[in-house]
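Notes from the pairing session

We agreed to fold both candidates in a single pass and log them together. This is the raw record for the first candidate, unedited. Please don't reformat it; downstream parsing expects exactly this layout.

Candidate A
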Amino acid sequence: MQEKKLEPLSCPFCGEMPVILPTVEDVDAGVCGAAYAEVRCINMRCPAQPSVHDGAEIADDRGSQAYKKLAIARWNQRSTTMY
């Protein structure tokens, strides 16, 4: 059975879809390694422009897809606290 692909939710501040880093182009160009991931709102009009890193404490050889899953899972967490 194929695993369901984890997709990021839209930005909680502006509603735009975020970018997931590193991109394939970044890795292919050798701009960055495969031991991190980040989900970031790149909407210049967003009042907060949040970003979330993968949160992994140890960089290892899991590859960028594993780190992207961690970052997306953290990005998708939404507070249910009402003030």
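Candidate B (folded immediately after A)
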Amino acid sequence: MPLLFTTDAAHGGRWTSLNAGGREWLWRRQGVGRERVSPGDAFVDAGGLEECVPTVRGTPDHGDVWSRAWSRHGDTERVACKAFTLARTVRATADGVRADYTLVADPGYRFVWAAHALLDLSEGAELRARAGTPTRVFPEASSLLDAPWPNGAAWVEGNWPAPGGLRLDRFGPDDGTAVGAVLTCGRACVHDGADRLSLAVEAEGQPVSIALWRNLGGFPPPDPYRSTGVEPMLGRTFDLADAGPGDAAQVPASGEVHWRLTLTASCICPRPSGCCSAGGSSGRIRPGARHK
């Protein structure tokens, strides 16, 4: 099934629609003043799919491109920041959408990128990924795990779908929690009733992952709301400041990093060992070091 997409270059390059046969996948917040932001402003959550680079959490919050106008030339959209330029070319395919990215910066420049896709999901939706995939969970989940949080750890690691005993593959009803996790794999599928959305990222020589944001009415204070995200990433942590060796993308000697995001309205994973397999044990949690 084809996916119809809309992007808004003038307002941070945000994807505002991803529609398959009348099913709108992207969740949106109306009337939040997103059209009036400038670089340096606090993040304004309008939903959709944000391009978050060079970090997701940390400084600047949700990165440096969401608050800037992009330019468009044919199929290619581009944004320039102080340390890098980012270009993307998004095209429809027979079964979905393909976006090709190029980031240009000085060799050695390190960054995290996320296709920060907030999805409009029912309480019965599931996230399918390969059972046993190493999965990092972050401090907001500390009270929900089956072992104490290690002092100073930026994350702890266990196995999908229940790292540290915390079942994360089901979205479920609002329960007042908000949890972020990073699966160290490059593809996953959302199942919501009869609908499917597969997300995959490929980048030669760079760390790839799939981030999960499962906010079931636990964030932000003092007026939390429900928002659920599945986010293909370069890098393996939300905050660039926490990234140790192998946890962030790095610009090679050529000065360019290239990657591809693929979205389809069907499962793209082989069975039984691919991302749509279910089950698996939680395993022991392993602390992630705090990097300065």
